[in-house]
Amino acid sequence: MSDLWRRCLERLEGELSAEDLHTWLMPLQAREDANGLQLFAPNSYTLDTVRGRYLGQIEAMLLQLAGKPCPVRLEVGSSTARPAAPAKTAAAPRVATTPTAPAFNHNLDPHYTFETFVEGKSNQLGKAAAMQVATNPGRAYNPLLLYGGTGLGKTHLMHAAGNLMRERNPDCKVLYLRSEQFVGSMIEALRAKSMDQFKLRFRSVDALLIDDIQFFAGKDTTQEEFFHTFNALFESKQQIILTCDRYPKEVDKLEPRLKSRLGWGLSVAIEPPDFETRAAILLAKAHDKGVAVDEHVAMLLAKRIRSNVRDLEGALNTLAARANFYGKPITTDFAEETLRDLLATHAQAVTIANIQKITAEYFNVRLQDLLSKRRVRSLARPRQIAMTLSKELTEHSLPEIGEAFGGRDHTTVMHACKTIRKFIETDARMRQDWEQLIRTLTG
Ligand SMILES: Nc1ncnc2c1ncn2[C@@H]1O[C@H](COP(=O)(O)OP(=O)(O)OP(=O)(O)O)[C@@H](O)[C@H]1O
């Protein structure tokens, strides 16, 4: 086992539960090389879980242990399956040759493609924009900015665009980085006085994909450097794709000149998927991972886990791991039993009372006015939004929601839902309010 990985596991023992450590991290095999640490997962659902839940923590721990950023590459396989050094090196010719440039590391995840991305109303526009950018890099929309809450598929779409660019043109240099990696590389370059190389690395690509740029907030030197990189790429029509956890104008401590540039291209919101899309994603993921899950189980999870796709996928991975361990089929009873605590947490997360309170606060109206019979527009709209949120984020029926809003009829709730849905599609301001409320309510 790699010494660095062994030390990392020892430290993580203090941070993670024994069950998590044994289920997800212990089965990994590790290999260290000049590019960082390569971790091999026994199967794709272990890989997805490690990537989704623990990668940040692992990289932070490696940074502490190694004293410098140590990129982690995850793949399904075994560290003994391939020799540590390529066979060619062992049989190197004795005559002097021009050293070949190291292969360009795109950092793209080959699993994240448009084929494996399930389309629904919540992400339709984002997917279409990403596809356009991939088929016409630097010319369709530049930059393309995908924003929205956590675990909704922004990273997936970004990789899908990069993968498609590479499929269409294998010479296309696409570089994907999480923003922490951009910051880490910059700090390293400053330390090693190799800023010229740093600049060249980022400016010589055909497409630069940077994930979670909200992480740049408050980091002035990074923003300065990124600003110049952005300008250089933009001017020479190299594609830029970015993601952010909210509309960039809402990110505090991001320089105004950067915010303004981010708005030069196209910004698309990725919203939480509706019930049908959640169920479809779950079935597609189960199929990809070779896990036998029927529609009843998919519907159970889609109904009870509304927060985001990552949580949904996490639940599927846990189910698959436990079913595998106990040698049992995944039935609805098995799912209810295995995920009891998780489902209970999600059930508590969004209640009508909570939606009413948060919506009243958001629109700066009193809760009792929101629930009153008064029909002035300043109250009617927030009330309709709160009713629609209750319909979409809880399992309550229309009559129950009507009752909770001062004893209104179920047709009033139905009308509210229709009105608000239409507004969200046509009115940008309303869409922003809606997305912000969803983010606040689903964390
Ligand atoms: N529509 C979808 N179809 C298939 N898989 C999806 C979809 N949306 C999300 N996922 C999956 O959910 C997981 C989380 O998605 P992703 O990492 O892209 O989220 P994100 O929006 O970038 O979140 P964060 O902001 O936290 O990085 C991934 O495994 C991704 O494949």
UniProtKB/TrEMBL annotation:
The AAA+ ATPase domain, residue ranges: 140-271
Keyword match Transferase: no
Xref: Pfam families: Bac_DnaA, Bac_DnaA_C, DnaA_N
Primary residence: cytoplasm
Region (Domain I, interacts with DnaA modulators): 1-80
Cellular location(s): Cytoplasm
Quaternary structure (record): Oligomerizes as a right-handed, spiral filament on DNA at oriC.
Name of the molecule in the record: Chromosomal replication initiator protein DnaA
